[in-house]
UniProtKB/TrEMBL annotation:
Residues 506-516 have a biased composition (Basic and acidic residues). Residues 495-505 have a biased composition (Basic residues). Pfam families: DUF3707. SUPFAM superfamilies: Ribonuclease H-like. It comes from Chlamydomonas schloesseri. Residues 573-610 form a coiled coil. Residues 463-481 have a biased composition (Acidic residues). The keyword Transmembrane helix does not apply. This is Pherophorin domain-containing protein. Residues 227-239 have a biased composition (Pro residues).
């Protein structure tokens, strides 16, 4: 088989196959492997997300060994989310990213077959199963492995903070797998075994903050030991940790803190990072060696093994009582309470800090095991310990009280809370210093809280337990035990005697008490009807008030009870209950009606969707709307459910179809508004009813795929000059796409059209008018397929090519007009040994169709010639058969067809590339260069002309007498002919004129001799050589170099691959050439452009009929206001639909103020598209504000220059890889351009590094190479609007074409809900 470029496709060499595989399999950045976790080019910078450093295990399941095993193999990672407070926080990873995936760096030996890991998120299984996988960005042999939990779906800080991801490890059926963190995780450098490195990725894989977590030694399932907030009680003490002191901070060894409610802080990557942050932030007061830090005060401190806590000087903690703490304020500083349980921490306090009341104040702690509700029977309670203050300030009702108040003891109470008790007053504050406890060394700390100091520890004065109370004290106290030994409070006899004495000493004043009585809100519990009157001095009844009965009661419990039992109140309550029951019945009835209406609505929607789906099916097939009515009976016969009974005629079907079009237009507008750049193509054609139409398409990038979207098919009601067409184009774009004039000017970067003068005129064509005003950034492209077709038609001027075209047309006409000949042709093909393929027709408008027609005729030549000769011999009067047989046996035509095919092949490939939907301008420029090079090698280069594999068929045909050739020499007269099925077909030829010969040449065909064969062969080669030279010259003339398109080659891999040297290696583009192209881009896209001027809309035709008077009034009002022709025309159109002159006048005035930025509303017929044709300006109530500032540059050239340093070398490597893979036969489904840029932007790092080059690539890809899509639409229009449907007007014709050509949906996935809503808004309907 011969390749399109003329090279034989034979077995690929091994090194070529390996090169292709390496390009596909290896990472894009050659030599730039990622050897550190998380093995990808993502940002691990500032991020609000971290993993808590302590791994926890859930409580083991009770009741079986299996449950315990599962609990022991489940490890939970808690996610923390606190935005960093220091530095800038403007990048994506810090402000917008969420958490999509969690990865853990695991050991390669844990990568085993089977499901050995599962995961949950907040106790529920994750959407995607967790698993182990090998990474692809690491060097071969590294075998880096990660455990990935994907699709977490945590969008922001609120969702991430506190979320818990648990993994359960298991073994496979071969008992292989890692079931502990020590076996599973690869610990970070310097961390102990069992420490896991964890990375959190966002949905774009651009952000991957990393942190570490481990399971503390000795922890069991169901326990947690996170440093903040800490557990209560703390774990048992561990050996002292070696903590280095830090200047400006007080060191607490093996100590953690507990923050106050609402504390603010976070975690950094290491302790040193937290140290630096705390130094820089004056609000920061605490940090530790695990990287945690927080601002402000600490609630308490407690023992925590392995943790070094540092507290900034001046940020120490003071407390007044258990619930109130103050930090850093000398005025609020008070003494601490230290009990025997605080001995381990008391040793850490420096004496100077205690004496000056500026040091660490440790948390007041009690022996919690002594707080019990069970006490020995009839035994008075004992205080836990004597508590002496270090200052003259003591806890009181407000936290800090004066020194003259009495000190208190804490004693247990029935509810487990300490109850203050009076103690002797401390009169002399000097005695306080005498009872200050001496600081104790850490070695003397007891091992259990609540016990006395061990041997060798310094004694603490005044810390002995208080003796039991005497009987006198006990007489005034409350009893704290019952018969069962439970603690309870009862009134003592002494206290009861005192209370009775107070009663007898002072009689009660009932009158004064009544005056002071007020309404008690708690009464609403027993008396729900009660309400306060007169500021609470009186009580009313809400039930009686509803029945117009006034109730005024004294605020006393007795009176409220009496009113509640009164007959009037009971009757009022009964009436209220009856009214409530009526309301409940009415509410139930309304709910049932609403439910019934909802069911009716749902049923109606289902039925209407059935009709909509049937219409979508018909429109996708291009069928007429009259078929819709016929489907009703068919659906009834098939017993299709949910069939509506109405709206089954073609008029109702068109209303439904208009609603369907509205849904498609909404999809179009949404996609266009998301695009950065758009391209436009347009063309003009005439339909079967001789009406002129203009088709408009828009193009935009969706990722790296270019979408082509049909905009509209507009009827041209005036003479199609350039000015009129430009106004129609702008009005159509704004009406259908909903874009303002400024949006169009900013977004449109390319316009494609054919080469007609009205379109591509140099001074006043449509393209020139667009670039001079409405779209200043647009690059105009004369359709490359059209230009290539015109250049190929140059071959028709060559005599031998003209003879071939005539032969192809005659042969097709001879066969296609007679069914008898077509039936007999199969027999002749069998006799000639050919396949009997039907002959093809060469079109008049497209030279592209000639190549397949010539190829078919060459293959079936012998059978066609045999049939033509037989028909001519059978009927001497059949002139067509005689003429065709003479043409088929002409040697020059036969040789010309075989010699022309190698020339037609590259032209055919180039024209097909130009007509492809996904064709990019840069790819076509490269294809054009390749096409000219192939033609020159095959025809114009004397060293290689008419040689090579492409001419195998030509040389085989000239091999007279050999097996492949049908040609034979006649043994009798030596003439050339073809022998088939025992018959001799003699070839003839007109002897070519010898150059320079005199006289008139003989044009009479004669038998072919060897001399004549040589002369004819030379003549054919000479003619085709001259034709090839002319085609190459015409291609060069029609495709001149354009500086801006040449500069846009920076976006294509063909440029970055460079040129091939003599050694076969590619050389990267020169730096000077890249800089020159950037300078060109700066001139075109790097500067601002003036804002577009006002754009005049297309005037609608003047209305007729009863609204003429209204239109006249509207035009008069607009003219009187001096609003111009556009406003007058808008008033005409509005008056056509207005019921009276006043409405028309208002509509005219409203349309007149509509500026170029007034976006058209999406109405059923398209904004401003009346049924009679033409477009109207929208008519807002007020004039919109028009932005007249200059348009911003499309490209940041400074970024391009800075990114070029890193982009150029990697682009060269990737371009070479992609193109070599394509040349070796690897199929790239979307082409080399898309493959190149998918590789260059596959990671977030590359997208950030080459962001402006990616923007340049999308700009270049949006520029369309012509108007091929419009040609396809015109073919669809001809299919839909045929002779039977020639009355279709613009509204319905555009709708039918849109639904057939815009393949964004199928019958199954069409957005019927949007269409149904549009139908309800635009059509009158009744319930069925």
């Amino acid at each position: 088989m011969v390749s399109p470029l003329g090279t034989a496709r034979r077995g690929l060499p091994v090194h070529a196959v390996l090169a292709v595989l390496l390009c596909v399999a290896l990472p894009v950045a050659f030599g730039a492997y990622d050897t550190t976790f998380p093995f990808g080019r993502c940002s691990s910078g500032p991020s609000p997300y971290r993993v808590e450093p302590i791994v926890t295990q859930p409580q083991q399941q009770q009741g079986g060994k299996a449950g315990a095993t599962a609990g022991a193999r489940t490890f939970c990672f808690k996610l923390l989310a606190r935005r960093p407070t220091q530095g800038s926080c403007s990048d994506y990873c810090c402000k917008e990213a969420g958490v999509h995936k969690l990865e853990i760096n695991v050991k390669p030996q844990c990568y085993v077959s089977g499901d050995v890991v599962s995961a949950t998120l907040n106790g529920k299984p994750t959407k995607a199963a967790a698993g182990l996988r090998r990474t692809t960005n690491t060097p071969p042999g590294m075998n880096a492995t990660v455990l990935a939990v994907t699709q977490l779906g945590l969008p922001g800080i609120a969702a991430v903070d506190g979320a818990q991801v648990c993994i359960t490890l298991a073994t496979n059926k071969d008992r292989r797998g890692c079931t502990t963190l020590e076996d599973l995780c690869v610990p970070p450098a310097g961390q102990p075994a069992g420490t896991c490195a964890v990375a959190l990725f966002d949905a774009t894989i651009r952000c991957c903050p990393t942190s570490s977590a481990r399971l503390l030694a000795g922890s069991r399932p169901g326990t947690s030991a996170a440093p903040s907030p800490p557990p209560r009680p703390p774990p048992p003490p561990s050996p002292r940790t070696n903590c280095p002191p830090k200047a400006g901070y007080t060191l607490l060894v093996d100590t953690n803190w507990e923050g106050l409610p609402g504390w603010k802080g976070g975690q950094e990557a290491s302790g040193e990072a937290a140290h630096k942050l705390c130094d820089a932030d004056p609000q920061c007061g605490h940090w530790n060696n695990w990287g945690y830090w927080f601002n402000g005060a600490a609630k308490s401190y407690f023992e925590y093994g392995g943790l070094c806590s540092y507290v900034k000087n001046g940020k120490e903690m003071y407390n007044t009582r258990v619930s109130n703490f103050f930090c850093g304020e000398a005025a609020a500083a008070v003494g601490t309470y230290i009990t025997t349980s605080d001995a381990p921490l008391a040793a850490l306090m420096p004496p100077a800090a205690i004496a000056g009341r500026a040091g660490f104040i440790l948390e007041q702690r009690y022996a919690y095991d002594a707080w019990t509700l069970k006490m020995p029977p009839r035994e008075p309670p004992k205080p836990l310990g004597k508590i002496r203050p270090l200052t003259a300030l003591f806890p009181g009702k407000d936290g800090v009280v004066a020194a003259d108040q009495e000190p208190v003891d804490i004693v247990p109470a029935k509810n487990g809370v300490g109850r203050p008790r009076k103690r002797p007053r401390v009169e002399d504050t000097a005695d306080v210093a005498a009872v200050q406890p001496a600081p104790q060394p850490a070695a003397a700390a007891p091992t259990d809280r609540g016990e006395e100091a061990q041997q060798g520890a310094a004694p603490q004065p005044e810390l002995e337990l208080e003796p039991e109370l005497d009987s006198e004290d006990n007489e005034d106290s409350d009893s704290c035990s019952d018969s069962d030994g439970n603690v309870e409070i009862v009134e003592s006899p002494g206290r009861k005697r005192k209370r009775n004495a107070r009663k007898a000493a002072k009689p009660r004043d009932h009158k004064a008490e009544n005056q002071r009585r007020r309404y008690v809100p708690a009464w609403t519990i027993r008396f729900s009807w009660s309400m306060a009157l007169a500021g609470g001095a009186r009580v009313g009844c809400s039930v009686c008030k509803l029945l117009n009965k006034h109730v005024d009661l004294f605020p006393h419990n007795r009176q409220l009870k009496q009113h509640q039992k009164s007959p009037a109140h009971v009757e009022a309550v009964a009436q209220e209950q009856e009214e409530l029951a009526k309301k409940a019945r009415l509410r139930d009835k309304l709910e049932r009606m609403q439910e019934m209406l909802k069911k009716m609505q749902d049923e109606f929607d289902r039925k209407k969707v059935t009709q909509l789906a049937q219409i979508v099916h018909l429109l996708l097939l291009g069928r007429p709307m009259t078929d819709f009515e016929a489907t009703h009976e068919l659906m009834q016969v098939l017993k299709v459910p949910d069939i509506p009974a109405r709206h089954w005629n073609d008029n109702a079907a068109w209303l439904l179809a208009e609603a369907l079009e509205e849904a498609v237009l909404d999809m179009l507008r949404e996609r266009v508004k998301k695009a950065e750049f758009i391209g436009i193509s347009l063309d003009e054609a005439t339909d079967v009813s001789n009406k002129s139409w203009m088709c408009v398409h828009v193009y935009f990038m969706d990722g790296w795929h270019r979408e082509a979207a049909f905009v509209d098919l507009v009827e041209l009601t005036e003479a199609p000059d350039a000015k009129y067409l430009a106004r129609v184009l702008l009005s159509t774009l704004r009406a259908r796409l909903g874009l303002s004039a400024r949006d169009l000017a900013r977004m449109v970067v390319g316009i494609g059209a054919d080469g007609a003068g009205v379109m591509a005129g140099e001074h006043s064509g449509v393209l020139r008018r667009m670039t001079d005003g409405a779209t200043p950034y647009a690059i105009t492209i004369w359709c490359m397929a059209h230009r290539g077709n015109l250049a190929a038609k140059k071959l028709s001027g060559t005599p031998v090519v003209a003879k071939i075209e005539s032969l192809v047309a005659a042969a097709h006409s001879f066969h296609s007009t007679s069914a008898k000949r077509q039936a007999a042709f199969a027999q002749y093909a069998e006799a000639a040994g050919t396949k009997g393929n039907q002959l093809k027709e060469a079109g008049d408008t497209r030279w592209l169709s000639l190549q397949p027609a010539v190829s078919t005729l060459v293959a079936e030549h012998v059978a066609v010639a045999l049939q033509a000769v037989h028909d001519a011999d059978a009927d001497r009067s059949d002139l067509r058969a005689h003429g065709l047989s003479a043409q088929l046996l002409d040697l020059e035509a036969l040789l010309g067809m075989h010699a022309l095919l190698p020339l037609m092949e590259p032209l055919q490939i180039f024209l097909k590339q130009c007509q492809a939907t996904s064709a990019f301008v840069g790819d076509l420029v490269d294809a054009l260069s390749r096409t000219k090079r192939i033609i020159e090698e095959r025809y114009t280069n004397s060293a290689t002309a008419f040689t090579g594999d492409a001419f195998d068929s030509y040389h085989a045909f000239l091999g007279v007498g050999s097996k492949p050739s049908p040609l034979l020499w006649d043994e009798e007269d030596g003439c050339l002919g073809i022998k088939v099925d025992g018959e001799w077909l003699e070839l003839t030829a007109v002897r070519p004129r010898v150059p320079g010969a005199k006289g008139r040449p003989c044009r009479q065909p004669k038998p072919v001799s060897p001399d004549v064969l040589a002369e004819v062969t030379q003549s054919v080669q000479r003619q085709l050589k001259e034709a090839a030279e002319e085609v190459v010259a015409d291609l060069t003339r029609r495709f001149p170099p354009v500086p801006v398109l040449d500069a846009l080659s920076l976006a294509y891999p063909q440029y970055w691959a460079g040129s091939i040297g003599l050694d076969g290696k590619r050389t990267a583009p020169a730096k000077a050439d890249v800089d020159a192209k950037l300078d060109t881009l700066e001139r075109y896209f790097g500067g601002s452009k003036p804002a577009p001027s006002d754009i005049t809309y297309i005037e609608a035709p003047a209305p007729a009929g009863p609204n003429v008077a209204a239109a006249t009034a509207a035009r008069g009002a607009a003219a009187a206001a001096g609003l111009g022709a556009a406003a007058t025309a808008a008033g005409d159109a509005a008056a056509a639909a207005a019921p009276n002159a006043a409405a028309a006048t208002a509509a005219g005035g409203g349309a007149a103020v509509a500026g170029p930025d007034a976006a058209a509303p999406p109405t059923g017929g398209g904004a401003g598209v009346p049924a009679a044709g033409g477009l109207l300006a929208p008519a807002p109530a007020t004039a919109p504000s028009i932005d007249t500032s200059p348009l911003p540059p499309l490209l940041d050239i400074a970024k391009l220059r800075s990114q070029k340093v890193l982009f150029a070398p990697e682009a060269h490597e990737q371009a070479v890889c992609v193109l070599e893979a394509q040349e070796t036969g690897l199929k790239l489904p979307k082409g080399s351009f898309v493959a190149f840029w998918q590789s260059m932007t596959r990671s977030a790092y590359q997208l950030d590094t080459y962001g402006e080059f990616a923007r340049l690539a999308k700009l270049a890809a949006t520029i369309v190479p012509g108007s091929v899509e419009a040609e396809r639409v015109f073919s669809t229009m001809s299919y839909i609007k045929n002779k039977q449907r020639n009355r279709l007007e613009q509204r319905h014709l555009s709708l039918a074409v849109r639904m057939k050509v815009q393949r964004w949906f199928t019958v199954a996935d069409f957005p019927y809900s949007k269409a149904l809503a549009a139908w309800r808004d635009n059509a009158a309907f009744r319930w069925e």
